[in-house]
Amino acid sequence: MDVDQLRSFDRIVRDGSFTKAAARLNVTQATISMRIKALENAAGGPLFARGRQVALTERGAAFLPYARRILSTLVESEEAMRSMDRGHLTLATLRSVVPTLVTPPVSDFLAAHPQVALDVEEGRHRDIAEWLHDRRVELAIIAWPNVDPLLDPLQPLALFSEKARLVAAPALAAAIGPAPTLDRVFEIAPRFVTHLWWQVTPEAILAMNRRARTTSLMPLEPSRALIDAGAAVGHLLAPQVDADIASGRLAEIEPVDMPPMTRRSALVAGFAGAAERPLVADLAARLVARAEALHILEADRR
Description:
The chain is of the alpha/beta class. The chain folds into 3 domains: 3-78, Winged helix-like DNA-binding domain superfamily/Winged helix DNA-binding domain (Arc Repressor Mutant, subunit A, Orthogonal Bundle); 85-160 and 264-300, Periplasmic binding protein-like II (D-Maltodextrin-Binding Protein, domain 2, 3-Layer(aba) Sandwich), CATH 3.40.190.10; 162-259, Periplasmic binding protein-like II (D-Maltodextrin-Binding Protein, domain 2, 3-Layer(aba) Sandwich). The protein contains 12 helices and 12 strands. The strands form 2 sheets. Strands 3, 4, 5, 6, 7, 8, 9, 10, 11 and 12 form a 10-stranded mixed β-sheet that branches. A two-stranded antiparallel ribbon has the order 1-2. α1 packs across α4 (58-86) and α2 (18-25) packs across α3 (29-43). The protein starts with a helix and ends with a strand. The relative contact order is 0.14.
């Protein structure tokens, strides 16, 4: 039984496929099959029921938590030694908070610690959940509450709550009028744009999707371009748009029958003991201070 066999076993469980696992690990399918055969010999029986779909046997399900515990301990020790040798840490973050919440603290941190190797990785919640599962990062900003089965129960270091404002170009907002109903908004607005901000899309957003004439799910940059051009309405996070609303570049639309919308996120440690490291604690403190300055800090639980 070796580490490559355990990693292959874990990857197959997560991907549900020998072929996908081989591609993710950059090895041939024959290599994956040989590793699993050797692991099954060591474990005393089949770990997978092979067929049209790959499923764990009872033996495989019993073995899984032990395999993951071994892998987690190994990766955690590798990360600890790397951090001690180089002064290295990694922050993973939701893309949507990079410009407002993450960029200023990271710049200040690197100015204070010019010799530290800091990596910042951005992605969607599901990407970050996988990095946390693999113990690849010391700190992460994820969607909250966490319902991802990949992750063990997490205790957040801090909770953030951002208002999601329904906005439009000023001319489109004027055509819709003040204090409209949602029916009025979607009678005038040509398109409703949405984003993958939540693990589970709120029912209010789903209801608005059903009422809109046309909808688009897209990243921030193209949705913002459509909104600026008067071709769509959509929710944007308050830290991203409050200055533009104040300057008149954008207008907030406040339908009388739309509930308040917020997006919650959390700052979490990548693994046990990470938050106690001085460099990690310093970066966490800067992120929390920035959240407080943006008025999005819901709770500081450090």
